[in-house]
Design a protein that fits this description.
- The chain is mainly α.
- The protein has one domain.
- It has 13 helices and no strands.
- Helix 4 packs parallel to helix 9 and helix 9 runs parallel beside helix 13.
- The protein is globular and about 55 Å long.
């Protein structure tokens, strides 16, 4: 069964209440039985921050321009949102196979709802984190008005990538395991616990063939997104125009590819489950 683009988009918009309800359900259920409840939104990255701070503040001593725990959290929060959404979203379509086989609806709704649930989690964690850099570093400025830019780019990049992985897993079950391995490698290839400028210090300490590989990290979309958050929250300055345009272009390309795949294969995906 074929659907044109406008019909597919209308179908998704018509199900916006379902997306919202699924997102809220995931948001509430995740911490419903936990004693500390929503505090775990910030406690998890804080625990990561403590461990990484000990290693990279006292052992490796990575030079940064802000207190290391704040610098680290500013990278961990967007990273954790993307990584957790991608990890949970990849098998989500297959996990909902009973629903998918019973009734037709735009298949994008499944990864979109997963992303929306994690996005709510991210926004609450970000709100809890914001006072620390703004008060301690005194980075209140008009640049804060640009904060929605990296937030929206992060959401768009994450939902596109997650939707792509979700469709891939429906046809090739090894996709979820590839995603898990990718996330592990990607973490170290993203300037979360080190500034992007730190890479230049390795130029004369590693074999020549590794230098171009290190430079590729600069073209990692998550590197651009994290750089935007740090520019605004830690430096009180506007994000780089190059980062905005580059990440925006990658996100738009991913959206186009993903939308095309869902339009073509979404109606028959149930036959492969």
């Amino acid at each position: 069964m074929k659907h044109d683009s406008s019909e597919e988009i209308r179908g998704i918009l018509a199900k916006r209440n379902l997306i919202w309800n699924l997102a809220i359900k995931d948001f509430k259920v995740r911490y419903r039985s936990a004693t500390l409840g929503f505090l775990w939104m910030l406690l998890n990255p804080v625990l990561q921050m403590i461990v990484l701070s000990i290693v990279f503040s006292f052992i490796v001593k990575v030079p940064v321009s802000a207190p290391y725990p704040i610098f680290l959290l500013c990278g961990l929060l967007p990273w954790n949102f993307m990584a957790m959404t991608l990890g949970a979203g990849a098998p989500s379509l297959v996990n909902e196979r009973n629903l998918v086989k019973k009734v037709y609806f735009p298949r994008e709704i499944i990864p979109i709802s997963v992303t929306a649930g994690h996005f709510l989690h991210f926004l609450v964690a970000l709100a809890l984190f914001l006072p620390f850099p703004l008060v301690i570093l005194h980075t209140w400025s008009w640049a804060l008005l640009a904060l929605p830019i990296p937030i929206l780019l992060l959401a768009g990049f994450t939902v596109s990538l997650t939707s792509l992985a979700t469709m891939g897993d429906a046809f090739f079950r090894d996709t979820r395991f590839i995603v898990e391995a990718l996330i592990m490698v990607w973490f170290y290839a993203t300037p979360i616990f080190y500034p992007i400028e730190f890479l230049t210090t390795f130029a004369d300490k590693v074999p020549g063939w590794i230098v171009p590989v290190l430079q590729l990290i600069r073209f990692n979309p998550m590197a651009g997104i994290i750089s935007m958050f740090r520019k605004i929250l830690l430096d009180g300055t506007l994000p780089s125009l190059f980062d905005c345009l580059y990440v925006g272009s990658i996100t738009a390309l991913l959206m186009i590819i993903t939308f095309g795949l869902y339009r073509r294969h979404g109606p028959v995906v149930a036959d492969h489950m």
